[in-house]
Hints:
- The complex is a heterodimer.
- Chain A is mainly α.
- Chain A has one domain (3-173): Butyryl-CoA Dehydrogenase, subunit A, domain 3, CATH 1.20.140.
- In chain A, 74% of the residues lie in helices and 0% in strands.
- Chain A has helices spanning 3-24, 27-44, 53-75, 81-87, 105-112, 116-127, 132-139, 143-173.
- In chain A, α1 runs antiparallel to α2 (27-44).
- By secondary structure, chain B is an alpha+beta fold.
- Chain B contains 8 helices and 5 strands; from the N terminus they run ααααααβααββββ.
- Chain B has helices at 4-13, 19-31, 33-57, 63-70, 76-82, 84-114, 121-135, 137-149; strands at residues 116-118, 153-161, 167-178, 181-190, 196-205.
- The interface between A and B is large, with 42 and 33 residues.
Amino acid sequence: MNEKNKKELMFILPKLRRYCYGLTGNKDHGDDLLHGSVVKILAKFNLLKIENLQAYMYKIISNLWKDELRKKYKSKEIHVEDYIMDQVPDNNINFDKVSYISNNDKINQAINTLTLKLREVLILIVSEKKTYKETSEILQIPIGTVMSRLHEARRKILENKDQNNTQNKIYDKN
Amino acid sequence: MIKIEDYKLQMYVDNELEPSEIKEIQEFLNTNSEAKLKVDSYRKINNLISENFKSIETEDFQKKTIDLLLKEDVSLVNKIFNYRIKLIPAFASFAAVLFVTIFTYNSFIVNISNETKNLNATNKSLIIEELKGIIGEQEATSLVSTIQNKNIKFKLINEFKNNSGNNCKEFKFFDFQIKDLNIDEAIFCKDNLGNEKLTKIKFFKGPLKQT
């Protein structure tokens, strides 16, 4: 990797870490995922011609995290891949709430209840300010799928918020 | 089932609409409080998520990740691949140098073989001896001093081994004239004792044809 590529990677590193945190919902896991993606890009960089490093890195991070989840679920002998990506909110596994405390615990918690497929779309568009087209290219899914996943993610967060509000109201009444 | 309006509202919040569509949505929001509430909710979620991840930017990176980038230890294979593009001009340069070297060397060899030299005294004597049988011994002997003092130019046109395995050289002469004989070519071979012998001489009688 030459100096120019290295500088570019250093420059986008904070954004990549933010995405890693968003996917894993955990500071330590996020840092490990970022480290793993840097290791991977350093190994691959010399073999590939990469036009958009940032987009490529997002792709690597997403795929690495999916691989990580596959390993976790394989060890539990669950073989249906879609089940992992669609049904299970993976961040609940070994989720260390203490390691990441923010002022927005509720939104963080709401994001963590989303499945990976919904969360990666939401974070790329909302946090990373990617367009629908860029997101579809990074995740290699159609724009229509990006839109439906984004809508679903928002709907679930709002649902979660409403549930919390209802619970609070019940708690207040008691 | 998601309503089409929801998609449009979502696109409006995410700045994915064309200016004409934005105006249309804004007019719709002015008259639809439910839709406006939805847009506000989406915006609130966006703000919360953005704020949530903003704090992460200021935190320090893992040392091992920074070290990995700063002290990147490139393997030999990677080094080779890394310099593959640089290797192409390097190989091209090397090939060019090699080509020039071979070409120059070949040219040098050609130049040596093309180089005209003066026939040495021994070979002159051998030719004179041979000519004795052609122009007569007396005539030939009288020409010895003339021939020996004359610069007879030749070019080496072939080197080979004869049937006895002796080294032979074939000379082509330039303007080698004795009386009315024009000596054109001659082959000198060394015998087993290392003495040079004239084995073939090619000549023609009469003046050179003007071409």
